[in-house]
Amino acid sequence: MSINRLKQEFSRIRELGYTLDDEEDEIGLRCIGAPVFDDSERVVAAISVSGTTAQISMDRVQGLARTVKKTAAAISSQLGYGKP
Q1: Do residues 20 and 31 touch, judged by C-beta distance below 8 A?
Q2: What is the C-alpha separation between 53 and 70, in angstroms, rounded?
């Protein structure tokens, strides 16, 4: 992957708020992950859900991504992210 393509991918991930590993690391597996932020707006962890392509079919990705993002946001909030 070129550096320009990688930058484009990072931009897309930031926009979506999650990332999808669609059999890129292991054939037959998918993973959806989102960052967890602390009170100084640094990424300190990530939360994800993983499963086989049968368990996480492409038509389930959007719903699972929403759940992963909500969970990451709740944890981030507990760590002080977004609080004045």
Answers
A1: yes
A2: 22
Residue whose token pair is 């038509």: 59
Provide φ and ψ at 26, rounded to 5°: -145, 125
pLDDT digits (tens, 9 = 90+) for 20-42: 999 999 999 999 999 999 999 99
66 CA to centre of own chain? 10
CATH fold for the domain made of 3-78: Beta-Lactamase (3.30.450)
Edge-to-edge, what's the strand order for the sheet holding 43-52? Answer: 19-22, 29-37, 43-52
The pTM of this model reads 0.88
Say if residues 17 and 62 touch (Cβ distance below 8 Å).
no
For the chain, give every domain's residue range.
Answer: 3-78
Check if the beta carbon of residue 79 is closer than 8 Å to that of residue 38: yes
